[in-house]
Amino acid sequence: MIKNYPYKYRDFARISAEASLAAREQGKYWEMHDLLLTRSPALDRSSLIAYAGELGLDVEAFTASIDSNAHAGEIDRDIALAESIDLYNTPTFFINGLQVVGERPFEYFKKMIDEELTRTGG
Question: Per-residue pLDDT tens for 55-110?
């Protein structure tokens, strides 16, 4: 499960979270996610709308979604959750209750998951 935690001191973090969720509405969350990572720091409104066009999204619906902050409630809930567990770094992963902060290679996660499966008999 993915949660949003837009850093309040980072330009365009909030609208980028809105953009990823607006893309999710049209079945393109991961595609938008990848564009946001590779195109950063160009994450202003007009760039986000251009990315929506690149992905073949309904640009009018996408724009209406980000302009209305359609996902503000979901984003606010995600922020409250992060703060309630003292999470202040992204990315942060939880695997069977174990916290992993920061990017890690696939092998790291595979080893950790395999160890947890062995430990729990899964």
Answer: 999 999 999 999 999 999 999 999 999 999 888 888 899 999 899 999 999 999 99
Find residue 99's DSSP bridge partners: 94
For residue 42, give its domain range. Answer: 13-84
CA distance 88 to 99: 12
- 80 and 98 housed in the same domain: no
Cα distances (angstroms) measured from residue 94 to each of 1, 5, 47: 10, 15, 32
- Residues listed for the chain: 122
Question: pLDDT over 70 for what percent of the chain?
Answer: 99
pTM for this predicted structure:
0.82
As given in the structure block, the two tokens for residue 121 are 């008999």
Q: Please write down the HEC assignment for all residues of 64-111.
A: HHHHCCCCHHHHHHHHHHHHHCCCCCCCEEEECCEEEECCCCHHHHHH
Residue 52 has pLDDT above 80, yes or no: yes
Q: Do 73 and 96 reside in the same domain of the chain?
A: no
74 and 116 within one domain: no
